Amino acid sequence: MSELTPKNGWNVGRRWLHVTVSVLTADQVTPELTAADRCDACGAQAYVRVLLPTGELLFCAHHGRKHAEALGQVATHIHDESDRLLSEPKSDQR
After folding, report:
1. What is the largest CA-CA distance in the chain?
2. Measured in whole angstroms, how far is the alpha carbon of residue 80 from the centre of its chain?
3. Is residue 94 part of a domain?
4. Hey, which end of the chain has fewer CB within 10 Å, N or C?
């Protein structure tokens, strides 16, 4: 999995979190976000997981972008799956 932190390339001005990549070891991997994961701000489906020294916060893409600058100052890792919103749906194969 790829993660970004403020120290290794998180740049709010360029395509939000997709600027550079750091690699986590197996014991640091965060699970993939599912439809059951909800935004802590509004309850929509979460696409961004923010790891803090004291826990984690989940955000939809909108609230993740809205709070990106502040989160970048306190987060230990930011896991962004918002690119899934742009991917083509898989065709139904029956």
Report:
1. 47
2. 2
3. no
4. C
Predicted structure pTM score = 0.66
Is residue 8 situated within a structural domain?
A: yes
- Domain coverage including residue 68: 2-85
Residue 22, in any domain of the structure: yes
What's the domain count of the chain? 1
- The amino acid at 64: G
Single-letter code of the amino acid located at 85:
L
Q: Would you state the structure tokens that stand for residue 76, as one six-digit string?
A: 């230990």
Amino acid letter, residue 45: Q
Closest by alpha carbon to 65, among 53, 51, 84, 50? 50
pLDDT at residue 88, as a whole number:
77
Q: Which amino acid is at 56?
A: E
Q: Are 51 and 79 in contact (CB under 8 A)?
A: yes
